[in-house]
Amino acid sequence: MLSTVARNADTAERMPLVEHLRELRSRLVKAALAVVAGVIVAFLLRNHVIGVLEDQVCGDTAINGIGKATAQCPNGVLTLSGPTAGITLAFKVAFLGGLCLSAPAWLYQFWAFMAPGLYKKEKRYGAGFVALATPLFASGCALCYLFFPEIMQALLGSAFTPRGVAVQLPVDTFLTFYLRMMVVFGISFVLPLFLVVFNVFGLMSGKAMARHWRVIVLVIFVFAAIAVPTGDPIGMSLLAIPLCVLYAAAVVFAKSNDRRRLRRRAADPLRALSPDQASPLDLTPIPLDETAPHAGIR
Question: Which of 122, 163, 218, 243 gives 118 a disulfide partner, CB atoms 3.0 to 4.6 angstroms apart?
Fold first, then answer.
């Protein structure tokens, strides 16, 4: 009898884990199918995508490439080496493009799996973070796309390339460098949002953020100088100035949120208590007929 009860109790304890694993498998399968569909679409559009990427560096006739000049790439700077380089490039573009195209689907599957375990307030914060982080990341990528030709001109132009020396830039190396730059710009635009998150959860006050603004601005310009490989003040400022503006916006929001938090604490004395202080007990008697009946009393 005891062994039967123990088996039933063990089964009851394991069932939630099994159900979670089944749901995880279902979410992973749906996310994988979305990625596969995105990869297929990106593979069909690979020539168009490669053409858009080539325009970022091929249109600059000031760059003297070693490759053959074509209508698509007049300066001949982009090259392919090896018999399988074209196939590798096509599948790399298809895979990365498929991940980007299917991002809404697999991100939703991840959120749908995590959301049931979150409180309502945590769901609201998570949805707000995603709603703000997505356009910020896209804005950083768009800024990189707009100014990437100037970055490549500074790197491959006459400023750093010796006279009479041609430039050979493999397409896969160019693609990797391009995507890395876009990710750096995109993530950089999202970083000030974490300051807002820290303030919302009470880990950092707006006053502290404003007090150290000189150090933060210095760190931003040093980070921009490292992230943008041109080394010139103009390229560094293209990333640093928008980050400073976003940091200022985060400080304004944090100060406003701190004032709102102080008003709520003043209206409710219990919110002003420290974790070491005990809240007052409500010893007001309740009529017997208003109390909930106990399950064991009949």
Answer: 122
Alpha-carbon gap, residue 65 to 57, rounded angstroms: 11
Q: What are the residues whose beta carbons fall under 8 Å from the beta carbon of 52, sequence distance 6 or more?
A: none
pTM for the whole thing? 0.70
pLDDT tens-digit map of 49-78: 877 877 777 766 666 565 555 656 666 677
Q: What is the pLDDT of residues 197-228, one digit of tens each?
A: 888 888 888 888 888 888 989 999 988 888 88
Domains contained in the chain, number: 1
| Helix intervals (H) in 45-168 | 46-58, 85-101, 103-114, 120-156
User: Is residue 36 domain-resident?
Assistant: yes
Residue 238 in any domain: the answer is: yes
Residues present in the chain in total? 298
E strand spans, the chain:
78-79, 169-170
| Full residue range of the structural domain in which residue 127 is found | 2-268
